Amino acid sequence: MRSLPVSAAVRPYDHFLLDLDGTLWVGDEALPGAVEAVAALREAGKTVLFLTNDVRHPPEGFVRKLWRLGFQASLPEILSVGAAVQFTLAERVGGGTAFVIGSQALVDHVAEAGLRIVNGTEFASRADVVVVGGHDDFVFEELKLATQAVLRGADLIGATRDATFPMPDGPWPGTGAILAAVEAAVDRKASTIVGKPELSMYQAASDRLGEGRLLAVGDRPEIDILGARRAGLDQALVLTGGASRTEAEAIDPAPTFVADSLATLVLS
C-alpha cells in the first residue's frame, strides 16, 4: 500500500494520540481510509500512540486486532486503560484484596498491580478494593458482590465513565453504565476514575512520547476532546463515532480541528 502525503493541518505535529473505537474502527471493521491515514502518518515520520478506554482486551489483543484490520502496530504503541489501572493501583493501594467487575484482561492487570483477586471466593464481598470495568458477560451477581464490598468499606475504582461505545448495530453499554449502577447501589461516587478524560492517561502518554507537539484524535467530545483539553493538548474530533456536525459546532471552546473522519483529517 502506497502512503499518501499528510495534510497541512497535521504536518506541524510530531506525535499523534489516536483513539481506537469510533476513530480507527467500529466493531470489527476498519473505518474507511483509516488504515491509509495511519500509514501516511508513519511515512511522514510521525509517532503514533494508540490511546484506548477499552478495558475488554489486553494490550496484546489490541496489537493483534490492529494488524488484522490492516494497521501496523507494536506493543509499546498501545496505552490501554487496563495498563493505567494497573499503574494506579500499584502506586496508590499497596496490596490487599480486590473484587473485579471486568474481563480477564482487567483481572490480570489488577493482579499484576499486586492485589489478590477474590472473585469466585467467599471473600469477594469483603474485598479491600472494587475495580469496575465493562465486559460482555456482566451479571447481577457481580453488581451484588461489588455493592456489598463497598458498603463494608471497600475503595471503589472505575476504569472509565464511558457510558457507551460504538458498535455496528448501535451503541453498547460501557464501563460507565455498570459503574453508575454500583454507585447508585452504594450511594457514593468512585474515589478514582483512571481513563480518559482524566489526566493520568495523557500524562502517561506524554511521558512515553517525550518532547514534541502532540495532537489527540478521538470521536467523543466528552471524553477524548475534554481529556486532551484538560491536558493542554490540541484536539481533533472525528465524526465517525456518533457525534454530529451540529454537536461539534456547539462545543465551547471549539476543538482545534473537526473532521468527518481520520482520513479527512490526515489526508485532505
Report on this structure.
There is one protein chain. This protein is an alpha/beta fold and 268 residues long. The protein folds into two domains: 15-53 and 196-267, HAD superfamily/HAD-like (Rossmann fold, 3-Layer(aba) Sandwich), CATH 3.40.50.1000; 92-193, HAD superfamily/HAD-like (Rossmann fold, 3-Layer(aba) Sandwich), CATH 3.40.50. It is 36% helix and 19% strand. It contains ten helices and 15 strands. It has helices spanning 34-43, 59-68, 81-92, 104-112, 140-151, 175-186, 199-209, 221-230, 245-249, 262-267, and strands at residues 15-18, 25-26, 29-30, 47-52, 78-80, 97-101, 116-117, 129-132, 155-158, 164-165, 172-173, 192-193, 214-218, 234-238, 257-259. It has a six-stranded parallel β-sheet with strand order 5-4-1-13-14-15, with helices on both faces. Strands 7-6-8-9-12 form a five-stranded parallel β-sheet, sandwiched between helices. Strands 2-3 form a two-stranded antiparallel sheet. Strand 4 (47-52), helix 2 (59-68) and strand 5 (78-80) form a beta-alpha-beta unit. The longest helix is centred in the first third of the chain and has 12 residues, at 81-92. It is elongated, with a radius of gyration of 19 Å. It starts with 14 loop residues before the first strand and ends with a helix.
